[in-house]
Amino acid sequence: MSRSLPPPPLKIGPLVIDPPILQAPMAGYTNAAYREIVRQYGGAGLLATEMVNARGFVWLDEHECEHPDRLWGVADEARPLAVQIWDNDPHTMAKVGKRLAEEYRVSVVDINFGCPVKQVTEKAHSGSYLLREPNRMYAIISQLVEACSPTPVTAKIRLGCSRDSINCNEIAHVVEEAGAAALTVHGRTAQDFFRGNADWEKISEIKSHLRSIPLIGNGDLDSAEKVVAAFETYDVDGVMIARASLGRPWLFSQAAAAIRGEPIPPEPDLDAQRECMLKHYQLVVNRFGPDKGTMLMRKFACCYAQGKHGARHFRTYVAGVSTPDEFMEVVERYFPTSAESRRSESRRSESSPSESPDVARAVAALPE
Ligand SMILES: Cc1cc2nc3c(=O)[nH]c(=O)nc-3n(C[C@H](O)[C@H](O)[C@H](O)COP(=O)(O)O)c2cc1C
Question: Residues in the chain with pLDDT < 50?
Fold first, then answer.
C-alpha cells in the first residue's frame, strides 16, 4: 500500500488533531515539564499524561488528599491534552473520567489496556490483562463514554496478551462498539514487553475491523523518515511516538515537517540540546524542589545524552548527583558540547582513540 502525504488531520470525536502525530503516555516521564518542552518545539498534535490509577485517585479524594502528582499541570496547561487512566472497575473508571472531563476539562480521556507490568496485570488485573476480558473492556469503555460525554474517550491496547492469543481485531470491534472515539495500538503483545519489533502489518490489518473511528499506530518510530514510511505504508490515521522522544523532544516537529513534505529540520546542536535539558531541569525543580527535582532529573538527563559522544561518562556521573550544584557540575564537565563533538569528530578522522584523555582520566578515577 502506498498512500499520499500529507495525511489528513485526525478526528477524535469533536477534536481535530493536526498533525496526526501523538505523544505517547509514559509513566515516570511524560509529566508537565516534559510536555512543556515538547510543546515548545511543536509538531505533536495531541499530548498525553502518564497513566493515572483511577482507584488511587478516588482514594485520595475520599481522604481529602491532594489529587495525584501525575495530574500536575493538567488543569492549567495548553490543550489538546489527553489524560490516561487505568483500573478494571467500570464504576471507578467512570467516576474518575467524569471528574477529569468536568473539573479538569481535559480534551480526551484515554484508557490503558496495554500496560504489561506485573503490578498492573497480575496484581490489579488491569492494563493488558483486560485484553482477555472483552466484556469487561466493553463495560469500562461504555460507562466511561457515558460519564465523560461530550469529552471523547479513547483506548490504547497491545496486539494481545501473548503471541498465541493475538486478538486485536476482535478487541478493536469491542472498543468501537462500546463508543470509544479512537483506538491506539502498540504493535507488540504484552508477553513481548519491548522485545522484537513492533508488528505494523498487524496494526494495519485492524483498520478493516473498524467502522469509522481512527486507528493510531505505535511502536519503534524513532525518526521522521520512519513516521513518513508508516503513513505511506500502513493503513493508519495517526501515529504515536514514545521512547524516541525522550531526550529528543524536537522529533515531533521533524516528523510533522516530513509528513508535510518539507525539509526535515536538523537536530538542534549540542549546545541547544543542553539548554533544552537545563530548561527541563528548571521546570522539574520548580515543581519538586531542588533535591527531589535533581533526583528525578537524573533519568531525563541520561535520555538527553543518549547516543552522543561521551554519553556513558555523563550517565555514570549524573546517576550519582543529588543536589543542584552537583548536577550543574556534572553537566558542565561531562554533557557533550558542540565544540567537544567537533573536536572528537576531527580526532576520529585522524584515527585517534575513541575517548578523550579527560574522559579516560575520569573513568580511571571512578570508585570501584
Ligand atoms: C518508560 C515507559 C513508560 C510507559 N508508560 C506508559 C503508560 O503510562 N501508558 C501507556 O499506555 N503506555 C506506556 N508506555 C508504552 C508507550 O506508550 C509505547 O506504547 C511504547 O513505548 C511503544 O512505543 P515506542 O516504540 O515509540 O516507544 C510506556 C513506555 C515506556 C518506555
Answer: 349-368
Residue 353's pLDDT is: 34
The predicted structure's pLDDT at residue 132: 98
**Cα-Cα-Cα-Cα dihedral of 329, 331, 336, 338, to 10°?**
-90
Counting ligand 1 atoms within 8 A of each CB, the residue from 22, 26, 183 with the most, and so the one to mutate, is: 26
CA distance 35 to 48: 8
pLDDT tens for 168-201 read 999 999 999 999 999 999 999 999 999 999 999 9
Q: Single out the catalytic residue among 115, 148, 161, 276.
A: 115
Cell of 294: 535533581
Q: Confirm or reject: Cβ of 104 under 6 Å from ligand 1.
A: no
Q: Catalytic: 148?
A: no
Q: How far apart are CA 266 and CA 254, in angstroms?
A: 8
**Domains of the chain as residue ranges with CATH:** 10-259 (3.20.20.70), 270-364 (no CATH)
